[in-house]
Design goal:
With 137 residues, the protein is α+β, with helices and mostly antiparallel strands. Helices cover 42% and strands 26% of the residues. It has one domain. The protein contains 4 helices and 7 strands; from the N terminus they run αααβββββαββ. The longest helix has 21 residues.
Length: 137
């Protein structure tokens, strides 16, 4: 068992965070059902934000994420695609297949932002369930 699994088992994810994640996944299914694969990431982002708002959740787009380096807070151009209810980071992709670097990107975003749960969503799949990964710290 790796350190990440041990850490998440010692501190369970709050029920509210899990419910927000469930709503995001439901919204992603609705967007994919309507549009299918093959569009630009930006199109899926706009539509997913709409679906999340329809569910009564607060969602922020393209949230700046500073990097603390050498005790300095630096704007390095990092942006979180979505942050929902200030609980769940959502990283969107529209690629042929998810790569390990995509998961590493979400893990880094979680560490830098202080959030514990991220969803990596690739809309360029035949079945959206195959394009969603839950990543927790």
């Amino acid at each position: 068992m790796n350190h990440q699994a041990t850490k998440s088992q010692s501190k369970p994810m709050p029920g509210e965070t899990n419910e927000v994640a469930r709503q995001i996944v439901d919204a992603a299914f609705a967007v994919h059902r309507a549009l299918g694969p093959g569009l630009l990431e930006s199109v899926y982002e706009v539509c997913l934000v709409h679906e999340i708002k329809k569910r009564g959740l607060n969602v922020e787009r393209q949230v700046a994420l500073p990097v603390v380096y050498d005790n300095l807070r630096l704007d390095a151009g990092l942006r979180l695609d979505l942050v929902v209810e200030n609980r769940v980071v959502v990283e969107l992709k529209a690629v042929e297949g998810l790569m390990p670097i995509h998961k590493a990107q979400v893990l880094t975003y979680l560490k830098l932002s202080g959030h514990r749960l991220g969803l990596l969503v690739n809309f360029n799949t035949v079945l959206i369930k195959d394009g969603i990964q839950r990543i927790a710290l």
